[in-house]
Amino acid sequence: MPSDTIDQLRLQLLEATLPHIPFDGWTAEALERAASDLRLDDLSVIRAFPGGGTELVRFHSTHTDDILLDSLAGRNLESLRVRDRVATGVRIRLELLANQREAMRRALSFLAMPQNTLLGLRCVYQTVDTIWYAAGDTATDWNFYSKRGLLAAVYTSTVLYWLEDESERFVDTWAFLDRRISDVMKVPKAVARCRQILPNPLRLFGRRRAA
Q: Is 102 helix (H, G, I), strand (E, B) or coil?
């Protein structure tokens, strides 16, 4: 089956499965109900998601990141500060999921299971990498990883806050996001100051050895 046909089948099944996830979770049962709604046979489900719920979660996350990237590409991010570009990326992704909060809650429970931890890390990494890419990040040294690590902490904490937020249009979540990014932006500055103030420990070690 051509890849474009497989992707269409996966998207069709994902959209049909989402209404069942609040009740059945990211499970084979939810996929079976979706297939029944679409009048698809079991073979079609196996072709689309041979890994069952695990592969469905991965596809949902990747598909959302693709939509996010397209959405950010249509915005004039160059006119914004870097922190605002990143905040925009996080906010738009959550807005894309605004009608899927219960599905996201079930996804977090699913990814918290020990056998799914690695998948959860991969999904978060892909999301923050997508946001940094859209923000114009060109780092290739250790900054590449530190930026993604810091944003991963911001993103995951914001998702947890957002899931419990009952404020109108999630205004409390956006305020929380702004505070978290402000805190994170202080880290590189603090590290830079420490490098200026504190001596290089390797040099000290070298001096002691010489002595």
A: helix
* Three-state secondary-structure class, residue 194: helix
Query: Is 190's pLDDT higher than 90?
Result: no
Per the CB < 8 A criterion, the answer to whether 110 and 68 are in contact is: no
Q: Among residues 97, 71, 75, which one has the least CA distance to residue 158?
A: 97
| pLDDT tens per residue, range 101-144 | 999 999 999 999 999 999 999 999 999 999 999 999 998 888 89
- DSSP secondary structure of 114-165: GGGHHHHHHHHHHHHHHHHHHTT----SHHHHHHHHHHHHHHHHHHHHHHH-
Q: How confident is the model at residue 161 (pLDDT cuts 50, 70, 90)?
A: very high
Q: Count of CB atoms within 10 A of residue 123's CB?
A: 20
Q: Which value, to the nearest 10 degrees, does the dihedral of the CA atoms of residues 124, 127, 131, 136 take? A: 100
Domain boundaries, the chain: 82-207
> For residue 185, what pLDDT is reported?
79
Q: Residues 60, 61, 62, 65: is their CA dihedral positive or negative? A: positive
pLDDT, residue 4, reads: 65
